[in-house]
Amino acid sequence: MALITPPTSSSSDTNLGKHASSGGSDVCTPEERRQKKLLSKREWARRSRLKKTQQREDLEAEISRLTDENNRLTDKVNVVTQKVIGLESDNDVQRAKKMLLMERLSYAISMQEFFGGVRHSR
In 32, 51, 76, 81, which residue has its Cα 20 to 30 A from 1's Cα atom? Predict the structure, then answer.
């Protein structure tokens, strides 16, 4: 396989694909190190943007889920509130009936005592 080298249009471009002349070692020229660092920073920025996008999408999904749950719970609260109002109304009716029955019982007891006392006095 043949090595492909970048075009040699300027002195800085000439050093891009070449290594220092130390017998083919992996020592990079300052320009190569700068390019690698620049590429690394770009890749980090790309990953960072992707991460932020994913976090935003996750938060938007959670907002949607929590909004749905909130609406569902609000509906439940409204149903329960209507039931409570109905039960309170029924309870008021039952209390009124209780009071009426207690008055009737009290009257019946007083009548029994009155007529029971009249029988014994004869």
Answer: 32
The beta-strand segments (E) located in 1-122 are none
User: pTM for the complete prediction?
Assistant: 0.51
14-to-11, 23, 31, 41 alpha-carbon distances in Å: 5, 18, 10, 23
User: One-letter amino acid identity for 94?
Assistant: Q
User: If phi over 0 gives left and psi between -120 and 50 gives alpha, with beta otherwise, what is residue 49?
Assistant: alpha
**From first to last of its 122 residues, what are the pLDDT tens digits of the chain?**
445 555 554 444 444 444 444 455 678 899 999 999 999 999 999 999 999 999 999 999 999 999 999 999 999 999 999 999 999 999 999 999 999 999 999 999 999 989 886 655 54
- For the chain, the first-to-last Cα distance in angstroms comes to 138
